[in-house]
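ARCHIVE CARD
CATEGORY: sequence design from structure
SOURCE FIELD: tokenized fold
FIELD CONTENT:
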């Protein structure tokens, strides 16, 4: 089986459209009927010490929470880069304003020549099992796909 990005993108879009049409009316009704609440979440409390020591969270105190970049509503073009187990981009921390390890700029660099029209992808490098009760399956379609992201 050959890796054809165009076919994979079409399959993803078709699957996304069908899942959105099935669940959007139910979700809108549920969101309208529920009052939105703010959830206080401290990601450091649920971690055992070995997971904490192997992650970036070791740079924070026990009562400090990390800064999280979320490009869901705002961001630059990098927010449209998708995951692939066989990516054509790699991520590098770039320190511009400060050398504090908690505040890097994130730079994306091509790992090889990328032809015009090719989807830009990078490896999210999630560790399976780190987020309790969360399973996220990979749908990149690469030959070396690891099947699960979380």
């Amino acid at each position: 089986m050959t890796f054809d990005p165009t076919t994979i993108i079409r399959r993803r879009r078709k699957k996304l459209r069908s899942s959105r049409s099935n669940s959007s009316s139910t979700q809108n009704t549920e969101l309208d009927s529920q009052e939105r609440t703010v959830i206080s979440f401290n990601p450091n409390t649920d971690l055992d010490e070995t997971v904490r020591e192997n992650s970036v969270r070791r740079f924070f105190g026990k009562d400090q929470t990390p800064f999280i970049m979320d490009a869901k509503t705002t961001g630059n073009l990098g927010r449209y880069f998708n995951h692939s187990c066989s990516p054509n981009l790699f991520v590098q921390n770039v320190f511009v304003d400060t050398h504090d390890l908690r505040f890097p700029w994130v730079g994306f660099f091509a790992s090889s020549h990328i032809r015009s029209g090719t989807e830009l992808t990078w490896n999210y490098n999630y560790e399976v099992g780190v987020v309790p009760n969360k399973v996220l399956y990979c749908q990149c379609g690469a030959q070396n796909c690891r099947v699960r992201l979380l």
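CARD ANNOTATION: Residues 5-33 form the longest helix (29 residues). Confidence is low (pLDDT under 50) at residues 23-39.
SHELF: design records, drawer C
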